[in-house]
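Can't paste images in this forum, so I'm doing it all in text. The chain is below; anyone willing to post the predicted C-alpha cells underneath?
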Amino acid sequence: MRIVHLALAGALALSPLAPLPLISPAGAQQRAPESFAPLARELLPAVVNISTSKNVAPRAGRPNAPEMPQLPPGSPFEEFFRDFFNRNRPPGQGEGPQQRPRRAQSLGSGFIIDAQEGIVVTNNHVIDGADEINVILQDKTSIRAELVGTDPRTDIAVLRIKHDKPLAAVAFGDSDQSEVGDWVIAIGNPFGFGGTVTAGIVSARGRDIGQGLYDDFIQTDASINQGNSGGPLFNMRGQVIGINTAIVSPSGVSAGLGFSIPSNMATRVVAQLRDAGRVRRGWIGVNIQGVTDDIAEALRLPAGTRGALVARAQEDGPAAKAGIRSGDVIIRFNGVAVPEMRALPRIVADNTVGSSVPVVIWRDGKEETVTITLGELPTEQRQAEAPAAPSVQGPVELAGLGLRVAAITNELRQRFNLKPEQRGVVIVEVVPGSAAAERELRPGDVIVEVQQQRVATPAEVQEQVERLRRQNRNVGLFAVENAGGQRFVPLRLNARSGAPG
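Text version of the structure:
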C-alpha cells in the first residue's frame, strides 16, 4: 500500500449556493440527490487545471535518444509511450555528458476563491520547484500565474491570476459541520483529463495518515486520482469543505480512500498566505507523548482524561518560561480540550503568535492553570539543556523491575556512546522477561526522572521507587532518554525481577 499525494485548495468568494433538492419520502431515510448536474454546472467554472514546468537535469545513458512526451503522472498513455520509446532508442547509446536539460511538466487542480483578485488555491506539491505556473480555466484559457505564498506543512499554495473577463469563484464552508455519511462531490483534473466530477460520501473524520503534525483529514470515497491535487471537495450547498490532497492505493489509482484537508484549517492558512506570503504558527516549545492507561494510572488522572504528556519543556521556550515542566499533562489549551497528544500541535498552531493564553495542566494529582505567551514555531526546534553532573555511585539493582542502574562514568559514557552533557542514571542491565524488558528498555537508556522527580544517582532512583511502593502505587512513571529523545515509560512496581510484569 502506498500514499499518493494529490492536492489542496481554498475558496472564499461567491455566496453559498442553494441546497440541491433531495428525494425524501415521508418516514424514509434521506436518499441520494436525483442529480448532481445543477450543482456541477454552478461549480465547474471556478475549478481550474494547473500546469507547471521546470528544468530538470538530464538522465545519463542515452544522450541522443528521442525524448518521451511529458505526460501527467499516472496517465494511461504513460506506459505505452515509455515502452515505445524504449524499443526505438538508437542502439549502442552509452553514457555521455552532452545530453541537454529537459523541461518537466506536471498537472494538478485548484480553485478560485476570489474572483476580483484572481486568487487560486492549490497544493504546494503541485507547484513546488516550478519556474512556470499556468492556470487553465474551464474554457481552456491559459493564464500565467504569480505565486503568492506556500505552506509546506499543510501542503497549501496560493496563486494569483489576472484576466480581463469575469471569473467564477467558490466559497469555503464549515468543515466542522460535515458528518460521516454526508454526500460530497470532488472536481478536478485526474490524469490530465480536465474538469471531472465525482461523487461520494464523507467516510470518516479526523484521519491521521502520517503526513505531518497537522494531519486531520476528511476521508471520502469520492473518486480521487493523480491530478486531482489541489481540487476542492464540496458539500451539497456548493461550499468547499475540503482540499483533496492524498489517496491510499496499492495501484496508484482510486481505491475509494481519498483524503482532504478540512476547510476550517485551510481558511486560516490561506488568509495568512494572502496577507503575508507565509504562515506564522503558535509554538510553546514542548516535546510530548501520548497518555496510555498505565501512564494515566501512574499520574492518577481522572477517568476519561488523556491530554498530552510533556516529555520535555525546551529550555527558554514559552512553556518552560511559564513554569510547565516534564511530567505535566496538558489537558486544556486556551479553553479547548486536548483529547489526545496529536491534537495539541494543531490547537497551539491555531492561536496567534504573541498572545497570552491559559493552559490547564495536571500536576501532582490536581489541575493547575498557567499562562503561556506564545512564540512562533521555529524552523528547527531547540533541545533542552541538561542539568549539572551528579556525583559517582556504584550500580544498584531495582528489585521487581528487572533493572540494574549506575551513575554515568567516563567508561559507561564511552560504552553506551552517551553525550558529554548527558545526566541521569544509566541502565546497565535489563533482565529478559521483566517489566522493563516488556517496555523495551535497553542498556544505555538513561533514567532522568522518576514520578516527575529528577534523579542523579542510583540511590535516588531506588528511593523514589520505594516511596511509591509505600504509597501503594502500582505503577511508576520513568522519564527515559536515549538517542531517539526522551519518553515516559510506565513500569509496574509489583512485578518480580526476571518475570513478566
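The chain has three domains: 1-17+37-55+103-279, 282-376, 396-492. Residues 396-492 form a domain with the Pdz3 Domain fold (CATH 2.30.42.10).
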